[in-house]
Amino acid sequence: MTATSLRTMVLACALVSTLVAFPSLQAQSPSGQAATQTPPPPPPRPKTKPQEPIDPNETAGVRGPGSPLTVRVMLKSKTVEGAHVVVKNTNGSLAGSCTTGVSGVCKVEVGPDNYVILATMTGREGSVTTHVTDSSGPIVIKLTKTKAPANPTT
User: Among 28, 41, 44, 89, which residue carries the largest CB count within 10 Å?
Assistant: First the structure.
């Protein structure tokens, strides 16, 4: 074997090993780029509606239509206008809320169950835990000064 044919044989072996190691070099597309198989793109995810904030007026009374519960808020034997009343189920979820009018009264639609009823207004609060039935009368809540925490942290 001559030196030229030996070099040709070594180059041919190197070329074959290169093509085996890099299959993307074997076939070229007409544009000069390697013709490799690319996996198809993943299917698009379905569009979801963004979550809307919870409106307490829509979620209040989720137990269904109930009878109106009348709540009267008092301070020093006088009715209180503008007090915020919150009615919570025994598990802590909101059952209803309202604001007292000029007469110090507001109404909340709730079904028969046990409730914690809270009333607040300008540094004063009051609460009552009661069982409500269809024939429950007005609930009266007396406001007292909000107690400051024993160890305030600053």
Answer: 89
| CATH code, domain with 80 | 2.60.40.10
> Residue 7: pLDDT above 60?
yes
The verdict on pTM exceeding 0.90 is: no
User: Tokens representing 147?
Assistant: 């107690």
Residue at 87 is within a domain? yes
What span, in angstroms and rounded, lies between the C-alpha atoms of 115 and 112?
9
Domain of 108?
56-145
Q: Is the pLDDT of residue 142 over 80?
A: yes
Q: Can you tell me whether residue 55 is helix, strand or coil?
A: coil
Q: How many domains does the chain have?
A: 1
Has residue 129 been placed in a domain?
yes
Q: Which distant-in-sequence residues (6+ apart) come within 8 Å of 83 by Cβ? A: 73, 99, 100, 104, 119, 120, 121, 143
pLDDT tens across 83-141, in order? Answer: 999 999 888 889 889 999 999 999 998 888 899 999 999 889 999 999 988 888 899 99
Burial class (CB in 10 A: 0-12, 13-18, 19+), 69: buried
